[in-house]
Each structure stands twice: as C-alpha cells, then as structure tokens.
Design brief:
This protein is mainly α and 117 residues long. The chain has helices at 12-22, 31-38, 44-53, 83-90, 103-106, 110-113, and strands spanning 29-30, 65-66, 95-96, 99-100. It has a single domain, classed as Winged helix-like DNA-binding domain superfamily/Winged helix DNA-binding domain (Arc Repressor Mutant, subunit A, Orthogonal Bundle). The termini are close together. It binds a DNA duplex (13 and 13 nucleotides) through residues 12, 30-32, 35-36, 40-52, 62, 65-68, 72-78, 84.
DNA sequence: GTCTTGACGTTTA
DNA sequence: CTAAACGCCAAGA
C-alpha cells in the first residue's frame, strides 16, 4: 500500500513510480488514472514526465502504462519502438497497431483496484 | 531569467 | 459529430 500518497512530503515522481510498480502483470494502466490517484487528475502530463525519468531507474514497468485510448504512445521512449509492444505481448496483452485490443478488459485503475478507504 | 516542449486528458467552440 | 484550446507541472535550451 502506498502511504506516501497522503504525504505531501513525498515527490510526485515517487508516487507515480510506486503506483506503476503496483500494476499487476498482464494489466495496463493509464496516465490519467495514476495522475488522478495521486490527486493531480488534470496533470496527466506529469505522469508521463515521471515515466521519462523512470528510464534511469529499474523495476519501473512503464510499458504497462499507456494513454487513455490504450495506445502505446510512449513506445518510442523504450529504446526501441517495438520494445514496449513486445513486452506487453510477453505479459499476454494483445497489441494491434500499437493499440491494446482488450484494453478495456486489461485496464487497471489504482483508485479502484487498490480500493481506497 | 524567459520561452518551448512534453509518454495526457478534459472541456469548449 | 469533429477540431481546437486549455490546464497542469517540470525540465531543457
């Protein structure tokens, strides 16, 4: 469980990394969902920016994070434009034309799955 | 120190 | 219905 979320002392990036790490295998989440979960519903851009910083970090499954449409918009930042898609496929996620087919089914919303009290 | 860009999402025209 | 602008915060030039 993420305890630092309520703590304003925690950095936005850390919160993003924490949530992304919590994404179950074979599931995907959206920048907006994470941003909203962190309290910055309209700051989805920052989530993407945080992901960019995750490049130098390990254990950040950024490939499980896509945009609201389920499109692999950030695939180009994985070193290879196909690396993200391949990784998702390895987890059993069906990707067609850089888009997740069963995105609606694989969608993982932190504010719902984590069940906040 | 100021301006532009950015892995998005929502709202208005 | 589609198209465009706005908002949000941060970092690079």
């Amino acid at each position: 469980m993420i305890k630092s979320i309520n703590d304003k002392n925690a950095d936005f990036f850390e919160n993003v990394f924490a949530v992304v790490k919590l994404i179950p295998k074979g599931r995907v989440s959206s920048y907006g969902a994470i941003a909203k979960y962190l309290g910055s519903a309209q700051s989805s851009r920052m989530v993407g920016w945080a992901m960019n910083a995750s490049h130098k970090m390990d254990g950040i499954p950024a490939h499980r994070v896509v945009n609201r449409q389920g499109l692999l918009t950030g695939k180009m930042h994985f070193g290879s434009p196909t690396l993200m898609e391949e990784k998702l496929k390895l987890e059993g996620i069906e990707v067609v034309n850089d888009q997740i087919s069963n995105f609606k089914t694989l969608y993982w919303d932190p504010s719902i799955e984590l069940n906040i009290d």
